[in-house]
Amino acid sequence: MIRTACVLIILAFAGAAFGASVVFVDNRAPAGGNGSREQPFTSIATAANTATIVYVAESDKPYNESVTLRKGQMLIGSAFGLDALRTDLHIDTGVVGIPAMQGTGPAIHGTIDVSGDNVIAGCTLFGEGVTGIAGSGAIGTLTIRNVYFKPSLAGFAIYLQDQQGKVDIAGGSIEAANRGSGIAIGGGYGDVVIDRFPISGEFTAAVRIQGRRSGTVTFRRGSKLHVRDALDDAVVITNIDRPAAVLFEDTIDVRGRRRGLVIDRVAKVVMGGTSSLNTANGAALEVHDSGVNLSFESISAQGVAPGTLDEGIILDRVHGPVSITGVDGKIGTGGAILHARGNGIRIDHADHVRVAGVTLSDSGVNKPARGVRCAGNFEVNSTAVCRAALYLRHISDSTFENIVIDGGSAMGINANNIRNVTFGGLDVHHAGDETFESGVLLQEAGGTITFSRSSFVDNAGSEMLIEQRFNNGKIVLDRCILAATGRPQVAPYLMELRSFGNAKVDVEIRTGDLRDNLGSAIDAAASETSSVSIDTRDSSLQHFGHGIMTVAAKQSANARVTLRNNMVVALASDRAWIDIAATEAGGVCADIATNRFSSVPGTVLHLAAASQAKITVVGVSAGNAGSIGAALAAANGGASTLVEGPAAGVPECR
Fold first, then answer.
1. CA separation (Å) from 635 to 567, 597, 605, 631?
2. pLDDT tens-digit map of 513-551
3. DSSP readout, 620-647?
4. Phi and psi for 88 in degrees, rounded to 5?
5. pTM of the model
6. Residue 352 is inside which H or E element, if any?
7. Collapsing DSSP states into helix, strand and coil, what is residue 284?
8. Which of 106, 327, 374, 476 could form an SS bridge with 333, CB 3.0 to 4.6 Å?
9. pLDDT tens digits for 163-208?
10. Residue of 97, 94, 91, 99 lying closest to 119 (CA atoms)
């Protein structure tokens, strides 16, 4: 099949060149030439009116003119030569002994318009406010070989509108200066192959691809995109349906003053390797409603006065993997989002996302939305749209590693309806400037959400607020720190856990370090018919002013609390270290044993149940409240226990 396609291309060229004549152009020659090798024309436009193949010699002065190539015509510069037409493109010119000459070929200041089945090779095109090669509705193959483009003043190197047929670009380059523009392909169909064709410089716009109906645009190896600066959005790919696609086999490196890479309503975009984006006052990466496979080493965006940055990275309704890898995932190597006044990073409806080594500083602003008060209370407010340094909504099977969130005037992380997501090595500190802005707000978790080796310190509200109304989810904190050393009076709890409706949420704390708050460490409450579980093992809980943990079940809800092998250090307190309460028809099962308590005398374990409620204690034989209290005291180094209301012992919580 491939061989057949090649034969068809060769036949197309052969047909175009059948009976072809060759004319020569050299602007150093005397005027009045006849286009022969000995007496060349001095004008490209004149030559194009007389022959199929126009050969243009390099000289010491430019060709200041534009030319329109008829269907099947070829413009061949001396840097490619006529011999290469026969050997490389299998086109017999009838002329021999004209090989490629050293140099970049004739310098043409103007536009070459194409009509279809055209070949342009071996020259340098200067587009000073105009397009180098332009086509509109051309039908047939366009072949570009060893052409060097020097666009400036917003002029595009290549601009093809509704090209109907293959485009084959190989060799040469684009080097933009003084705000030149790169490649624009609008509409049309047919494959576009860009091979060994680096694109670099200072641009207005580097790449524009939109409205393609079919065919793949491929930037092959050797076609790196290196945008040193872009005045407008650097790379924009929009409105491309299947089976069309855009593939970057080489890397892109973009720096710009607006958005870096924009992908909107595109069936397929693939990019890999060590690509990077770095922008000011515009999102570095913005993807909407598209199928992608994207990989970057780093992505950075910052707000620079007098301008502003709304959001640094946006992934909205994205299908397929997106990765920011950093250098071996190390902290600070994946880029930085600075001074974003909306969300630092917003990911909404996506899966298989990996973000590593990114720092978000002074990003996230609690800007009020109509009908929403971003106060983090499920019973009163809808906080799903509230801004954050890292905003996550409806994402699954994703990983966030070695991310630093430093400051900002909104919550650190707002995660809503996320499923099977892993966070590792997070450092969230000093986020928010109001007491309801938590370090992490996690709502409607699904599957298992894991935080490992992470720290949440000195955020404006609680360090972590978990709320669940509809979903069943599990949250695991492995070797995590929650502390309010610098803001000990701000929030009443380091962690708040709430369940409503018929939801179910389980929280496990493994080898945790919870400390330094004038309030308490954990407050868990279940209401309606929901259930909540808090399981803390092998952890340190110390330096609190109002006890360690409060667990409550009301209405027909159920709660389970497990405390095993923890070290508890309590200050003088007007409350119990651990306060467990069941009201109305609520039920609590408690597994509280083998902990080490070090505290001021007089503090207690407090279990309280209403007449219709029930508290059960694991590992204690059924008996009266006094025997349960004695057993708990014995299991916890003599800590005094107060039991009020109905209580019973059971082998295990069910």
1. 13, 11, 12, 6
2. 999 988 889 999 999 999 999 999 999 999 888 888 999
3. S-S--HHHHHHHHHHHTTT-EEEEES-E
4. -95, -40
5. 0.91
6. none
7. coil
8. 327
9. 999 999 999 999 999 999 999 999 999 999 999 999 999 999 999 9
10. 91
